[in-house]
């Protein structure tokens, strides 16, 4: 089994476990990002309050809306990303060694090369998996009302929820989301938000650049202090993954909000201020009607969710990779005479 395949499978496994743990936070965060209420129109709920509101009004299962396609997307994204990341990384390491033979550099992959490797891997991943995430966004932002509105009853919900409160809605599954997306934009509808998503590859690029830089320095320091032993514990991997993700998320969060707005169901017959024709239109309308705050809606929730998910992913991935290599090495040794 190749090292790239081991990393790809380990990344998929780690991504699925991290997704299961943090999915309710992801659902709430997507709703916060796609909340198109204008400046100071309504009271903003905190993350915990919003989770409680979803459970009370729609049932706890709505916190896991779109979980199935999300798990498929996570497995596909992490698998594709880590597979191509390892391939590009191997090529970068080979190139660095060749340059060292020519008297250039120390033979290690530099920060710029690490950034480029992560960016190329991210672009390949986005082009392959964007349709899955459009479906997931639709399912996460679908709002189900548990109550019917009686004649003359005053609505306590937000304007965009009033229509949903007026009647019992049919189940909204993966098939319904796919059909809705296709009806709105045809095949190209599944690639809505792909432009800001491609720009968003800078997030994992920054994440991996920060992670590998910190990991390299930690191993070097450990090797000096422990006479050649550069081993890193699972807890240290967890911490490095969390720090790397935190830095990348703060910088690139506005692009994530724009992407979610484009992938969510568009308001075609309502307020035109909340209907986006494309990336530039979304950015301009958000600046005009919501201010800079609109680009950071739900960032607190996202930081908690993404940092926790990334830390869990890194820790589990490293353990799975080490376990797979140990098993393969043991298997090879047992076959020797």
Automatic annotation (TrEMBL):
The cross-references to Pfam families, in alphabetical order and at most eight, read:
Mito_carr
Is-annotated flag, keyword Membrane?
yes
Q: Where is this protein chiefly located?
A: membrane
Topology of this chain in the membrane: Multi-pass membrane protein
The record's section on PROSITE patterns has: SOLCAR (PS50920)
| Sequence similarity | Belongs to the mitochondrial carrier (TC 2.A.29) family.
Q: Name one GO biological process term.
A: transmembrane transport
Segments passing through the bilayer: 109-128, 190-211, 232-256
**Whereabouts are the Solcar repeats?**
2-91, 109-217, 232-323
Listed InterPro entries? MCP_dom_sf, MCP_transmembrane, SLC25A32-like
Keyword Repeat attributed: yes
What organism is listed for this UniProt entry?
Malus baccata
Q: Which GO terms of the cellular component aspect does the record hold?
A: membrane
- What this protein is called in its record is Peroxisomal nicotinamide adenine dinucleotide carrier
Q: Where in the cell is it found?
A: Membrane
Q: Which keywords does the record carry?
A: Membrane, Repeat, Transmembrane, Transmembrane helix, Transport
